[in-house]
Amino acid sequence: MRVGYARVSTAGQLLDRQFVALTSAGCIRVFADKKSGRGTEREELWKALDYVRPGDILVVASLDRLGRSLQDLIAIVAGLRRRGIGFTSLHEALDTTTPGGRLVFHVFAALAEFIRELIVEGTREGLEAARARGQRLGRPPALTPEQVKYARDLLSHPGNTVSSIARLLGVSRSTIYKYVPELVESRFSLSEATAGADLGW
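and the corresponding structure tokens:
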């Protein structure tokens, strides 16, 4: 049994052409989504994948109607094959029920893995080169050295509160505590000593 799947990116686009192509290809039922392929909420696709049974063939008008990416496409087709379900793309004339179609998808899978390894290797080499140049990796610091010095200067004046300095620098109080811990601690110590003197300790 041939089961069709169609998709357009927006509600304003029409599915008519895909429906005609799929029904002409012998599909007895067609599932259709009107959503971007980048979304994960392709309800009709998941319904189609749940509907097909071993021996059936899932048919699409073109490959870009099924997968969000090459990796996504390969994962879906591989899942169908494990369940004994064929896959056909009309525009590309691909049919995984034939030796030629299976070969094409083996090539696609190998290419996707090759691209993934290139990306991983390129990222690793880029990080190593950045470390060799002495670049700091990861999230940039919340305060620059100049801002830390400015915060220290402001905290040396008892009239300035941690909250007011944090607002001035556009950071949270915890950031001030993190970058200037020694002055904050000394201020607490001074406050406790002053409070003790007032109480006659």
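(Above: one complete record from the training split.) The CA atoms of residues 115 and 121 lie 10 Å apart.
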